[in-house]
What does this fold into?
Amino acid sequence: MNVENNIKDLAYMTGVINTMARNKNFSLYFTANAKEQMKARGISTLDVINVFKFGIVEKYIEKGQHKGEYKIHKYKITGDYDGRNRSVRQISLVILVDVDRFQDPAIKIKDIITVMWKD
It folds into this structure.
């Protein structure tokens, strides 16, 4: 299957990202902006991991905008906040995903660029 044909299929991308996050070798790459936003909002790395494990890809935002980034795609994924307050809030992440059928894995999360409350 050519994964590049599924980049705008939100259900497919949700399944792939949820499965990736449940792997013990799952790793995250935060931009400085994302780290600042997490600190300001009291969102932990564990909260972000839970969004990846159980969240839903809500939106395909766009293809990479810089030269040479034609395989990079931007998505918004949202999931429940399981922090100390156990509020009803949700966390949204804007992430960059590398999609290239010639790589292993063919889909790889590159960066978390934004961490925010959905509301």
